[in-house]
Amino acid sequence: MDRTPVDRILDDWDAVASRAQPPGTAPRRAWGRGSRGVFNLLPLAAAALAIAIGVAWLGGRIGGNVGGTVPTASAVSSGAPSLPTASTTPSSPASPTPAAIVACDAPALTARITAWEGAAGSRIATVRVTNGGPETCMLPSIARPALVDGSGRGLAVGQAPTRNVKTIDLAAGAGLTTLVQVTNVCGAAPIAPVSLSFDLGDGHGVDARPLSADDVTVPPCNGPTLPAQIDMQEWAR
Amino acid sequence: MAIAEPADLAYERAFADHWRDVFRFALAWSNDWAAAEDLAQDAFLKLWDHRSRLDWTRPVLPWLLVATRRLATDRFRRLKRSVGGAAPQAEPDEATRVRWFDIQAAMAILSPLERTALVMTALEGSTYEAAGLVLGTSAGALRAAVSRARTKLENA
Asked: Least CA distance to A85: which residue of chain B?
């Protein structure tokens, strides 16, 4: 029987994909990866301490529960699905909300950076998000932040908040504020303007308007071998 | 000698049994060889992170494929790779690479959903219902996606 053009493409796809070779060993996340010894972990510990100080500072400004609101690497999970059928649906908000209020539509949201401040090796941005839509909508209390430069290069990308995230009702025209702390941005000088982007999940997000068109605010590089860090507080009124 | 945890053994078995399935799913979704290797790597790292909480008596492949899809739709994934760099992977040989570029170009006219639905149902033997669970959509929507995919490829 003749194969259709689509069948031939699929046959080719199948043949080529079958040539992929798995890595020699199953990947594992391990402490002491490679030859890293305990002394090589000291810079990491120092960075963690600096971040902890910064987070505590953030908490003091907001007056909230720091440990419960800032998604640190240990406080968030990976967003992997649960088994079996729940794995195909997004996790539901922790608190029930009226059915009439729907999740905020990303295009209806506007965000802007209103200030950058310095703090012990970090930079902290104040960001305001506003619901420009006609209806009240629900916004996840924590999003995944990223510091992005004018060329679209990611300078620091945060962890996805994967525990059950609360939602906040955001009335039409109303706004919420957060603080975003960024630490240890290394590498090539950023291209203006530097701004922040927030992932709301499922491929949607909102980009904050930068402080100015020529803003290149980034925190100092504390250690080029360590990753950049970025964390946000919960949105607050 | 240390005795491996049962979850660690189950993880190793899952890697041996399903890496190719995960890679093929990721390749169908991303239409990018390097990205697919990267996605497969990260999907198994997620499995590693969750190994002690999983019910290993149930099939793990759907879990892996849903995790892969979520990784693939991560808005910041490309940014993350630009920050941290992708883990070095084994490149396919020259003949495979050349052949892949042709197939990649042909499949590029399809959306990720159309491509993955077509591959899962036509090559992997998935039912529309099973593929719908992994892809987070209905069987009806997948039938429509596969039909669109075939039409696009035939008319290309």
From this structure: B133
